[in-house]
Protein: Protein-methionine-sulfoxide reductase catalytic subunit MsrP
Amino acid sequence: MKRFRLSVPGASAITPRAVYQARRQLLLAGAGAGLALAWPGFARSASAVGPLAAVPRGPFGTDEALTPRQFVTGYNNFYEFGTDKADPAANAHTLRPRPWQVQIDGAVSRPLTVDIEELLQPKNLQERIYRLRCVEGWSMVIPWIGLPLADVLRRVEPLGSAKYVEFTTLHDPEQMPGQKRDVLPWPYVEGLRLDEAMHPLSFLAVGLYGDVLPNQNGAPLRLVVPWKYGFKSVKSIVRIRFAEQQPQTAWNVVAPQEYGFYANVNPQVDHPRWSQARERRLGEGLLASRRPTLPFNGYAEQVASLYAGMDLRRDF
Ligand SMILES: Nc1nc2c(c(=O)[nH]1)N[C@H]1C(S)=C(S)[C@@H](COP(=O)(O)O)O[C@H]1N2
Ligand SMILES: [Mo]
Structure:
């Protein structure tokens, strides 16, 4: 089997260039990162600016202060464009998110190819403010725009034999130059159990902050599973496949002892190299104290029952 070079930073590596640059941008705009914290209304009033600004608010949102847009679009993991947090914002302009189709197939009675223009019709869309908690120890609160994943999945009529859903990112080293290096097995693949995929919290995002998705956030279509670590939220999806077997997911293949298939946010199960008990909320400034991480990222009431009877220390 091929060996991959692991380049995952430790949880303490939270001060890199991207945070610095995003802070600097905010300061230049006349609003320090500390001001966004002290005055949550600052972040919220910035939420509706783009062509999708009129999309109505959907269910399940949090009312926490939004993470300023500069952090959401300037501090990213998207290894197809480099492994530094500042790389995707600098490099993702080579991605061409239109035209774009998503193939939905596998164990279904009606395989389907969906065009992104159809998914972008405002009547299909809603806004959901969800936290995103990266396994590396930082979190953001993001006003996503998109549609419930189940709305899309139901259209293909899954067969009884379907037990999992697999999601695959575009594989095109010309558009995604990071794919020329063996940092991960390309294309990036993620997966959910069928009941997780059909859960009303699972969301397909096409936009954020009132606008279509910036390339670095996974344009034109990415998954958002708010009770799981960020790496489950696969970006720039071209294929959704219903499967009978558990999918081979990118990080689980690379380092199975560090990244499980389930990857539910769990403050009680440490990563082998760092604690998962607390998190740093981007935008609050480096002096702000870290927040306690919540079981299932705060969505235990909605999703804990999916895992009844499972040992979440073993199935991490
Ligand atoms: N295709 C692809 N999807 C990906 C990743 C990636 O490297 N490639 N990184 C994941 C990780 S580790 C995180 S934390 C989130 C980050 O999403 P954001 O940049 O929108 O905050 O995207 C996830 N989806
Ligand atoms: Mo992550």
Observations:
- Residues 9-307 form a domain with the Sulfite Oxidase; Chain A, domain 2 fold (CATH 3.90.420.10).
